Amino acid sequence: MNDLNLTSIKKLEIILQGEHRKFATDLLDRAGVKGYTIVNNLSGKGSHGFHAGHLMFNEDDVLIMIIVAVPEELVQPILEGFTPFFNNHSGVMFVSDIQVARLVKFRD
To answer: Which residues contact 82 (CB under 8 A, 6 or more apart)?
Structure first.
């Protein structure tokens, strides 16, 4: 096996209502993201109080987190795409520096 080399890229963690999943994943797909992970039924406390992570009525009524690792050049277009959304809906996005092995999984 070849040695694994680490490469610096960005990680986005996008937390929003499940009802907006399609909007978020469509935006990421259009931006050229190669893949993402979706975590359902989040619990936590924020400016709107505590949110329990159990399924209330359907999958649209829960908080989700979409985790994506992208090259730095994709961060700004993704942020620009989400800015109007977060101006009108609750949610949050975290951006952090990470290192990945197997860069081919994250870049064309």
So the answer is: 14, 24, 27, 93
